[in-house]
Amino acid sequence: MSWRIERLATDGPLFEGAIDVYSRAFAQPPYSDPGRGDEIRSRMVEVHCLREGYRAFCAVEGEGCVLGMAYGYHGLPGQWWHDTVAAALSRAAANRWLSDSYEVVEVAVAPEHQGRGVGASLIRELLDGRPESTAVLSTRADSRAHVLYGRLGFEILTTMRFAPRGAPFYVMGLGLNAAGGVK
Questions:
Q1: Span 21-72, pLDDT tens digits
Q2: I need a surface site. Which of 8, 78, 112, 168 has the fewest CB within 10 A?
Q3: Which of 180, 48, 71 has its CA nearest to residue 122?
């Protein structure tokens, strides 16, 4: 492994590199959304970095070449994703998975570095030491990302659409161990 994991601030060259990686990763099918990086930049800087438990990391090679990024925060009622997913789950499942959860909000790896362990390392670092009892995320059902999450122990909780004619997404959950992190 010739790369390392570093904390990701919401400004500076690493942040710009992370947004570039995110844009390139989500410009690829099935997403085909090259402008999504600008949306993520705004959400990270203006909203998400202010949430309880916010953490962000990037995988860096050499003198600052960003290979991937990931961030998340503690999920709470009143947050759009939390409430939307809670409504799609049974009351028991919502209580089990969302009452004390860490939301893995975004994970992106540069297309040329996918499949090399970068994403798995970012997720492990993101969840390391977290006090929550579960980690949850959503990913498009037609992407390969759910395979990575499954290898890390995430299980599919439900399949849902976040928009009436939108793509189907898997909502996935992982029980965290008592010391925090991936079991």
A1: 999 999 989 898 888 899 999 999 999 999 999 999 999 999 999 999 999 9
A2: 78
A3: 71
Burial state string for 167-183 with b = 16 or more CB within 10 A and e = fewer than 16: eebbbbbbebeeeebbe
Verify whether residue 71 is a known catalytic residue.
Answer: no
Cβ-in-10-Å burial (0-12, 13-18, 19+) of 135 comes to buried
Question: Residue 53 is encoded by which pair of tokens?
Answer: 């438990």
| Token duo for residue 99 | 């009452």
Q: Residue 42 burial by CB count (10 A; 0-12/13-18/19+): exposed, middle or buried?
A: exposed
d(CA 118, CA 121): 5
pLDDT computed for residue 180 by the predictor: 62
Q: Check pLDDT > 60 for residue 179.
A: no
Query: Which of the following is catalytic: 22, 102, 149, 170?
Result: 149
The CATH number of the domain holding residue 80 is: 3.40.630.30
